[in-house]
Write a structure and sequence with these properties.
This protein is mainly alpha-helical. It contains 13 helices and seven strands. The strands form three sheets. It has a three-stranded antiparallel sheet, with no helix packed on it. Strands 1-2 form a two-stranded antiparallel ribbon. Strands 3-4 form a two-stranded antiparallel sheet. Helix 2 runs antiparallel to helix 3. The radius of gyration is 19 Å and the shape is globular. The chain starts with a helix and ends in an 8-residue tail after the last helix. Bound molecules: glycine. The site of glycine (GLY) has 5 residues, from loops.
């Protein structure tokens, strides 16, 4: 089937299924799906970095359908998330994941002023994490983590670019670009693979060590980290026009495509033993979004490389990983949070559904950029 027709068919299935799923999950902040039901993090982990994806998913679906149930559910989710602002001391660098695709999307689509304020508060929390002498945005709390920058932060920078666009105050953008420049230098390896965590001297920015983070080991290649780099760097290019960011997005994309090209089903770590296969469908969904955005930025005869790789990822994951049973909450199965022992593996995770839907929205011609 032609790619566009395929995407339209998948979009129909997504919106039909999520119409049912939204009706039974209106009051939740889901993280993972267990026994066919999304869990709820309102009471257990209100500051979880994943708490924006349900609302974000609802906005993507609303943007592509105009179905009011998605708008209502997104608005409810945004209200539920306000409780996280009151846990300021538990917050972290993932304010973009939490508020840019919820409140930020609401403001973009409806002009809601309360949503504008929520996203602006969140942007200020993120900007406040910048280590001036070290030149990086601090990822996590905890004394021993003062020097940590992580690749995932690239996705949160969109919120800072937005804050500068809205206010005309460049300090948010300056922080975002300083962080992106540091990430190019310290996280991206010459072969296009990526270090998840870099521990810096907070006073000089000097690299003290690399840490395995959610990958298998130091020097391995955590696939979702690769995907954050692809999408994060092309977004930084879109928001700033700095051509080195597009070059990096392409370099990491080439590495990612080479690593998945056998079956287009991403493993959790591209440098892990074949016999122990933890898939991470979420990495494939994030990477597909980034590849589709790269395809829009490069000259005509380069576009197909990125677009086709995105389609292969999406189509392969649809055949092998998607669950279209409307009695089951999630669609995309086989997500893995991390390689290590304490992770959940090969299960549906909310950000898998979010990025899969966002990628399909792009494939049907949806032109709102949520980041
Ligand atoms: N941002 C954390 C993760 O990708 O698991």
């Amino acid at each position: 089937m032609e790619d566009r027709k395929w995407a339209e068919e998948i979009w129909k299935r997504l919106s039909a299924k999520f119409e049912k799923v939204a009706a039974r999950n209106e009051d939740k902040l889901p993280g993972i799906c267990i026994d066919g039901r999304y869990d709820d993090r309102r009471e257990t982990n209100i500051t979880s970095w994943t708490n924006g994806f349900w609302g974000g998913l609802m906005w993507v679906l609303y943007a592509g359908t105009d179905n009011e149930i998605f708008k209502r559910t997104a608005e409810r989710s945004e209200e539920l998330l306000d409780a996280a602002f009151l846990k300021y001391d538990w917050l972290h660098h993932d304010t973009g994941f939490m508020w840019h695709i919820t409140a930020g999307a609401d403001y973009k689509l409806t002009g809601n002023q309360s949503s504008y304020l929520r996203n602006m508060y969140a942007a200020n929390i993120l900007a406040g994490r910048y280590k001036i002498k070290g030149g990086y945005i601090r990822a996590w709390k905890g004394e021993e983590k003062e020097g940590y920058s992580i690749i995932d932060t690239m996705m949160n920078l969109a919120q800072l670019y937005w804050a500068s666009d809205m206010t005309g105050d460049n300090r948010y953008k300056d922080i975002a670009m300083a962080h992106a420049d540091m990430t190019m230098k310290c996280h991206i390896r010459p072969d296009g693979s990526v270090h998840h965590i870099v521990n810096h001297n907070p006073d000089t920015g000097e690299v003290i060590e690399y840490l395995a983070g959610q990958g298998m080991a130091v020097g391995s290649s955590w696939s979702r980290g690769q995907a954050w780099a692809i999408y994060g760097f092309v977004l930084s290019y879109i928001h700033t026009g700095k051509s080195e960011y597009l070059d990096v997005a392409k370099r990491v994309a080439h590495y990612f495509i080479a690593a998945v090209c056998e079956d287009y089903l991403p493993r959790c770590d591209f440098r892990s033993p074949e016999e122990l296969v933890y898939y991470d469908s979420t990495a494939g969904a994030v990477a597909a979004c980034g590849l589709l955005e790269i395809a829009k930025q490069v000259p005509e005869y380069e576009k197909e490389l990125y677009r086709r790789a995105a389609m292969r990822l999406l189509q392969s994951m649809e055949i092998n990983f998607c669950d279209w049973n409307q009695d089951v909450d999630a669609v995309l199965t086989m997500g893995t949070t991390a390689y290590g022992d304490n992770a959940v593996k090969n299960i549906p995770i909310i950000y898998g559904d979010y990025f899969f839907a966002e990628a399909i929205y792009k494939c049907i011609g949806g032109n709102i950029l949520f980041w």
